[in-house]
Every structure is written in C-alpha cells, then in structure tokens.
Amino acid sequence: MEFPVSYKIFSFPKFIHNTLHFLRSIKDFVFTILFFHPCAQDIYLSTRFKTRHEVPTLLDVLTRELLPVVKYSELVDPPQTCAVCLNEFSGCEEIRRLPNCQHVYHRNCVDRWMDHEQKTCPLCRTPFISDDMQAAFNERLWTASGISDFY
C-alpha cells in the first residue's frame, strides 16, 4: 500500500477570504484603540475570568496573619534583593520575614506564592508555620471555621 500521489486542496471562495480578512482587520483596530485607552487596564481587570487563586482560602488568610509584615527600613542587616522577583528592596516597602528560616521577601511576592497553594519558603522549603506555632494555628483555624466545639 502506497501513499497517494495527489492531494486535494480545499480553498475558500475569494469573497469569504476577503470578508474574514476585513473582519480581522477591524478586530485588530478595535483592540489597538482599547489598548491605548486610559481605562484599558480597568476594563481588562473587570472583564477577565476569575481563577481559583484570586479568592484566598481561610488557611491562606490565617497564614498571612501569622507571618509578620514590617518595613524594610526597620530590619537590621537585611539582604539587598528579593529572591522571588530579584528586585532590590527600598526603605518604604512592606516585606515579610519568615519566622522559621528568617528569609526576607516582598509582601506581594510571598502572597502570590501562597496563592498557588505553597506553604513553604520559596528558597529553602521550610514550612511557613513552625512546629511551636502549629498548635496555636490549628486552634485559630478551628475557631475561624466555626467548629471550635470539636477541637
């Protein structure tokens, strides 16, 4: 059995091809206008689909409450850059110093890390919640979930 020697070519009629090309040009023009519009970012953010990472869970909220937030200028002998985004710290930025490993990150960097269901340090993988804090964390989790009678 051999491969066929000839191939059938499917082609659109010229009118349909030109109509589709014209519609694509209109779409590109509209997107270009909207891209440069001052409110384009607000329009984009309000119309995009919600993902599961945009709504923090109770566990995420309680973890964020336990991780301290301080100003970079308040630290003694701090690192110069964030290991997540590789940007330098400035004196007025809010940062998180993880209690277990003492690594320092921008607040937004660690919060985005937690949004992806990560519960460990991005650099050394030690848990955010230390063993001595785990009992207090579990108690707050049970209380916040409304079933503290069983704990």
Automatic annotation (TrEMBL):
Keywords: Metal-binding, Zinc, Zinc-finger
BP terms from Gene Ontology: protein ubiquitination
Keyword Nucleotide-binding found: no
Cross-referenced InterPro entries: Znf_RING (IPR001841), Znf_RING/FYVE/PHD (IPR013083)
GO molecular function: ubiquitin protein ligase activity; zinc ion binding
Keyword Thylakoid annotated: no
SUPFAM superfamilies hit by this protein: RING/U-box
Domain RING-type residues, every copy: 82-125
Domain of life: Eukaryota
Gene3D superfamilies registered for this protein in UniProt: Zinc/RING finger domain, C3HC4 (zinc finger)
Protein name stated in the entry: RING-type domain-containing protein
Species of the source: Daucus carota subsp. sativus
Source taxonomy: Eukaryota, Viridiplantae, Streptophyta, Embryophyta, Tracheophyta
